[in-house]
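Entry 14. Structure prediction run on the chain below.
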Amino acid sequence: MLDIKQIRENPEKIQKKANDKGIEINVEHILELDNKLRGLDTMVQSLREERNKVAKEKNIEKGKDIKIKLEKHEHALNAVREELNIYLLKVPNPAKDDVKVGKNEEDNEVLRKVGEPTKFDFTPKDHLTLGESLDIIDVVRASKISGARFYFLKNDGALLEFALRQLAFDILLKEGFIPLIPPVLIKTEIMKGLGYMENGGDEDMYIFDKDDLVLVGTSEQSIVAMHKDEVLNAKDLPKRYVGFSTCFRREAGSYGKDTRGILRVHQFDKVEMVSYTKEGEDDKEHEYLLSIEEKLLQALGIPYQVVKMCSGDLGYPAARKYDLEAWVPSEGKYREVTSTSTTTDFQARRLNIRYQEDNERKFVSILNGTAFSTRPIIAILENFQQADGSIKVPEVLQEILGKSVIK
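Output returned:
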C-alpha cells in the first residue's frame, strides 16, 4: 500500500493517478478515516497514561471507570484501523510521471523498432501449422486431456524451450543474477500482499480455497515475496534473482481471443528476473532489465518493438511497464513476448521488505522482467520458417539444441 503520509500530502494527485488507471478510490474518505484514527489514537494514549497514574495512586474506582473508557476507545480504534486498511489496500500504485495518461492498449507508446519485419518469397504459415507439421506442438491431444488453451511441446519443440531457458540462464548468471526454482503455490495472503488480487485480478487466478493457496500466474510472485518481513543490507543491493517455474492463468475475460496455438494459454513456463534496489534507484534498474530483455531478443535475431504502457494499461501494482513485442509474420503485426515493470516500494510496503543503510531503514524498490517464456517459440517458428516447412534454428541456439534446422 502507499505511505499514508504520501496520501495526506498529495490527495488530489493520488486520486487522479488512480483515475488515470481506471480504478475507483475515495481519497476524501481515506483522509476522514485517517483523521479519525489519529484522534482515537491520541485519546487511547492519553487514557493509558491516566490509567498508569491512577494505578500508582491506587484509586480503584477511578481505575475501573478509566478501564471501561479505554476498552471502548481501543475497540473503536481497532475498528477504524481495520476499515482504513481496507480502503488503503484499494489504492493502486500511482503511475510514474513519465507514463502517458491513456485508457487502454490503443494509447500505448511505441518507443522504438529493432530489426526489419521478416519477409518471405512464399506465403508464411502460422506457428501452429508449422508446429503440427513438424510434430513439435500438439494441442489436439492436450485439449483431450486438459481442455482448451493447453498444449504439448514435443520432440524439438520441448528441446527448443530447454534451449531458450539455458540461453537465458547463461546470460543472466554472467550478469550476477542468483538462480532460483521457486514454489508455484503461494499463500492467499501473500498474493494479496503482492497486490495482484485487487481490482478483479483474482479472476485470472487458480485459487484453492480448501488449502488457502494460489497458483502463481508469473514467476516473480514467489520470488518477490521470499524476503517478506526481512531487512536487507544496503551493501547487497541491487539484489537480483533469476527464477524458472511453470505459471498458470485462467485467462478470464479472454474468451474467443487468441484461441489458436500457444499464444494465450492456461499453463506455460517462464524465466523471470526480479530486482531489489535502494530507494530512488529503480528507474536505472528498470532500464537495465529492459536492456537484458532486448539483448535476449537480439541474440535470437527476432524483429521486435519496445512499447511503453499507458496508465490505463498498467497493472494494479506497476508504476511503469515496458512490453517487448516480437514480429509475427502470419498476423502481420507485433505480439507481446516479454515485459518488465517497476513496482517502486509498493509491494515492499505491503510485504514489509526493507533495507538498512547506516542507521536508517527504508523500503526497497522491487522490479520484475521476463527473460523468456514459451512465447518466443512462436516468433522463432514464424520468423525462421523456410519454404519447405522446416525451421532454421537461430545461430545462438544451434550448439545448445545440437542442430541448425528443425525438420
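Residues 102 and 279 are 27 Å apart (CA to CA).
Filed with the rest of this week's runs.
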